[in-house]
Design a protein that fits this description.
443 residues
């Protein structure tokens, strides 16, 4: 009699992927709209530029803190509850900020809404781990995210930067995410299978009869996850510092004009779309450790180069190349976190930790740039990427081994089923997929 496979991950389906992507966009939209939010706060709440900037920083920090706080819940059966609660809160708070022309209501609405969408960030991040191919799902998400954000960033100025357009967009995506939340993938019950996967993924020492014990493997998985979160946060600070200071560095070093900065930012978005398509095509064929290390090293070199170019054209070209590498690196980080555990234990908090670094980069970046100048600033950012490549390689290699051991176990199970003469063994994978999908809400 045959046994069934225990792979808890799902194949990609339109309903589950759309819900995951759009809830994630609702959580991250504030990061992309932060310049517009500052402008709208200046006009509607009558705040000075510095006060408006700190208000938006507070919104992003609340998103990050709440996302980190609820991430453990999103790795269990409360994922849907967390997502819906946060999205409903964001809808009400951002809606009030968009419709009520009172400074106190606007500021309070943004802060409360930022806290609400922190739940969406954690829930969608955890849901990435539910899919069978973390690399391709990260690529598809990058394509969807940048495509939607590009449209939103183009439409809002055409309508006019005002609370109804900026804060209303935040409320609208909370509403869309809330409507799709029923299709968000549920957290699988993996039990100790994650630790078992690590134990199988760690090579046996010569002369031993058994692999690493599940308890020891669980500690190794915990250490790998924590290292990944810290590394990703530091990497985010380095990347977003350059993004935030691009205009200043370009102007001081290469005579970049505002029009040139706009071209650089637009081209960077296109480069991110190209990176998403590349990852969708190659998937995990190259593994994760080698591509991610190469990307970090190349990205570090490109960041350093931005401080030494002397013409606007050269700066724009280097900046676009760097952002393309950045987008690919970001998606590989997400894939690594998703592969470590199918319940989203690490992919959930990963996206929130990014916001911790991202929200502080204008202050950190300005301080480093002021102290070291453009050349010292970009060299420092490049060194950060090179140093972080070492721990990143170790965690990425472990995540790839976990995936390979899971696939090998599934292949071995299929061979065992065939050897027992099970007439339905040829459709075992399909039955498993159907059983897992049956437990998910269907469109």
């Amino acid at each position: 009699m045959s046994t069934t496979t225990t792979d808890p991950r799902l194949p990609m389906r339109p309903g589950t992927t759309s819900a995951t992507f759009l809830i994630g966009i609702a959580g991250y939209l504030g990061v992309n709209l932060s310049p517009y939010m500052i402008s709208a706060l200046q006009d509607a709440a009558e705040l000075e530029f510095l006060a408006a900037g700190w208000t938006v920083t507070g919104v992003l920090l609340l998103t990050a803190v709440v996302g980190l706080s609820v991430a453990p819940l999103c790795a269990g059966p409360r994922r849907h509850m967390v997502a819906r609660t946060g999205l409903a809160l964001g809808l009400a708070a951002f809606g009030a900020a968009a419709l009520v022309p009172a400074p106190a209501v606007i500021i309070a609405g943004l802060l409360v809404g930022g806290a609400g969408v922190g739940c969406a960030v954690a829930a969608s991040g955890a849901a990435f781990a539910a899919f069978r191919d973390p690399d391709r799902i990260a690529g598809f998400n990058g394509l969807a995210n940048r495509g939607v954000i590009t449209v939103v960033l183009a439409v809002i100025p055409a309508i006019g930067i005002a609370p109804i357009s900026v804060f209303g967009s935040l409320a609208l995506f909370c509403l869309i995410g809330l409507a799709l939340s029923r299709w968000l993938p549920k957290a699988p019950t993996v039990g100790s299978s994650a630790a078992a996967g690590v134990a199988e993924a760690v090579p046996m020492r010569r002369g031993t009869a058994s692999s690493v014990s599940p308890k020891s493997a669980d500690r190794r998985l915990l250490a790998a996850g924590l290292v990944l979160l810290v590394t990703f946060t530091l990497w985010a600070v380095g990347e977003d510092s350059l993004w935030a200071m691009a205009g200043a560095v370009g102007e001081m070093q290469a005579g970049l004009t505002p029009a040139g900065l706009g071209l650089a930012l637009s081209g960077a978005t296109a480069g991110g779309l190209l990176g998403s398509i590349v990852l969708m095509i190659i998937g995990d064929r190259l593994g994760r450790a080698v591509p991610l290390v190469v990307l970090l090293l190349v990205g570090g070199a490109l960041k350093a180069a931005t401080g030494f170019v002397e013409t606007p054209t050269a700066f724009i070209v280097v900046f676009i190349a760097w952002n393309t590498v950045y987008a690919l690196s970001f998606m590989y980080f997400v894939a690594v976190a998703a592969a470590l555990s199918a319940d989203g234990r690490w992919s959930g908090p990963l996206l929130a930790t990014y916001l911790v670094g991202s929200s502080l980069t204008p202050v950190i970046g300005a301080a480093i740039l002021g102290a070291l100048g453009p050349e010292g600033f970009t060299i420092t950012l490049g060194i950060v990427s090179v140093v972080l490549a070492v721990p990143t390689a170790a965690v990425a290699a472990l995540s790839s081994r976990i995936n390979r051991s899971a696939k090998a176990a599934a292949a071995g199970q299929g061979a065992e089923d065939n050897s027992t003469g099970d007439e339905s063994a040829g459709t075992a994978d399909t039955r498993d997929d159907d059983a897992r999908l049956a437990s998910q809400p269907t469109a």
